[in-house]
Write a structure and sequence with these properties.
472 residues; mainly alpha; 2 domains; 18 helices
Length: 472
């Protein structure tokens, strides 16, 4: 069941019709049942993984709170994390590491016999695993009191609006919203519908139309021209942003209709001026999760310069691997780790500089945004390519590939579908307000919403295409 389908529209309508008539406890029970139906629509067998993970972490939270022994609490946390990561290891990474080991062994002339598991990757397993882990870690750190009610905790884990592709909600933020009665106001409804419409526009009009350009280019083994490589990467940059941020907007909008507030997962990432700034704006829920639970746990920047660079690289390598069981994702993580470490090293080398004049500051900002966008585009090439051979071929095309006039038509298509997004985000950036339309006259808001609605009907892809991050 995907957000951009008639089935979901009917499902959500039925859920809301019942939800608004129930008291708080009944709403939570309905949400739990609806979440399991929503997830089970893909494959009901994988509900068992969610049930087991939920029970184990709920039990761990109780024992972490009741025990006064530091050693015992560490063992409980370790077992909880080991259990969750073990699920990921078996279902998502076992085949990757097994085949990688076999390839390495064959290179040395050794051919061991290893049983490969031909299993389907449970949808959204990385998202709900990280969310559940945040609960036990926060209880261990005594930032959160554990839930004594298993059904409330299960509702927190399985909350369907964001369960499959985020944002990854911390237990400290979402669990209290489950436990307390929600008051649904007119503002919640208006905000929810606005976010859902904007998210559907980004998914169905931008992302799905960009996919028509991206998929044929990256499906070819080569050779590539400069034009088609640049067009393919540029279109993918808008595809993945429209697809993923569109999902996050729809998730936030759906939650708002039920009185919940989910965090903003994207903050104008293509206006970033540095690698650090990019990761403060892109997939915020994952980048802050990795920062708080991995980078800080490794020592962060508190154990010397070299260790800081190592911690940055390890964090981004694991962040790349989180996205998928492929060495190209590891390469993408290493690329961003190198950017982060390199930018930090340059900043330390340059030291404090006097404030530039106004025109130099504006020129510097423009150059920084442009340069960072180019670096981000190459990162998306690494992310989207299927093999290192394809990466090498497309990289060669960017520097040595022949020019071609045929790609101009694709550039016009990209500009046509992305211009409204670019205009809106320019206004958001320069006004420093993601919700600037709240101050816009009602007639202008209505005109914009009608534009989005008509664009969806005129240009939207109604084939119910899955969201890119479902595979992660």
């Amino acid at each position: 069941m995907v957000f951009n389908s008639l089935l979901f529209a009917v499902f959500l309508g039925v859920v809301l019709l019942l939800y608004y008539r129930l008291p708080h406890r009944g709403q939570n029970h309905l949400l739990l049942i609806a979440s399991y139906v929503f997830y089970g629509a893909w494959d009901w067998r994988f509900l068992s993984l969610i049930w087991i993970s939920t029970t184990v972490d709920w039990w761990a939270g109780l024992h972490l709170d009741e025990s006064k022994s530091p050693a015992y609490r560490k063992r409980v946390l370790f077992l909880s994390c080991l259990f969750n990561l073990g699920f990921l290891g078996v279902f998502k990474y076992y085949g990757f590491f097994a085949t990688s080991f076999l390839a390495l062994a064959a290179w040395f002339g050794w051919h061991p016999q290893i049983r490969l598991l031909h299993i389907v990757l449970p949808i959204g397993i990385s998202f709900y695993t990280f969310q559940s882990m945040s609960y036990t870690i926060e209880v261990y750190r005594k930032h959160l009191k554990p839930s004594r009610n298993l059904l409330e905790y299960a509702t927190f884990v399985a909350f369907f609006p964001h369960m499959v592709a985020g944002p990854i909600m911390r237990a400290t933020s979402l669990l209290p919203q489950v436990q307390k009665p929600r008051v649904i106001t007119r503002a919640h409804i208006v905000e929810g519908l606005r976010l859902m419409l904007w998210g559907l526009y980004k998914k169905m009009v931008i992302a799905d139309n960009m996919a028509l350009i991206v998929d044929p280019i990256f499906a070819r083994p080569g050779p590539y021209t400069f034009g088609e490589t640049f067009v393919g990467v540029l279109a993918f940059a808008f595809q993945i942003y429209g697809d993923f941020s569109g999902y996050s907007d729809i998730a936030r909008g759906t939650a708002s209709l039920m009185g919940f507030e989910l965090i903003v997962n994207f903050d104008l990432p293509y206006f970033a001026t540095s690698p650090q700034d990019f990761w403060r704006r892109w997939h915020i829920s994952l980048s802050t999760w990795l920062r708080d639970y991995l980078y800080v746990s490794l020592g962060g920047n508190q154990k010397g310069r070299v260790r800081t660079y190592v911690n940055l690289m390890l964090t981004m390598l694991l962040g790349g691997l989180w996205h998928g069981a492929s060495w190209t994702f590891v390469c993408w993580g290493a690329y961003h780790g190198t950017l982060l470490a390199g930018h930090r090293a340059i900043g330390e080398w340059r030291g404090e500089r006097p404030a530039p004049s106004a025109w130099r500051a504006r020129a510097g900002w423009l150059l920084s945004v442009g340069f960072m966008f180019v670096l981000t585009l190459y990162g998306w090439l690494l992310f989207r390519c299927h093999t290192f051979h394809q990466i090498a071929g497309m990289t060669r095309a960017l520097f040595l590939g022949p020019l071609d006039a045929g790609s101009l038509r694709h550039l016009v298509t990209i500009a046509f579908f992305t211009l409204p997004l670019v205009v809106v985000q320019c206004v958001q950036y320069f006004r420093d307000d993601l919700d600037f339309w709240r101050q816009v006259p009602v007639w202008a808001q209505t005109a914009f919403y009608l534009f989005c609605l008509y664009s969806i009907f005129l240009f939207g892809a109604f084939r119910g295409a899955a969201f890119i991050y479902f595979q992660f």
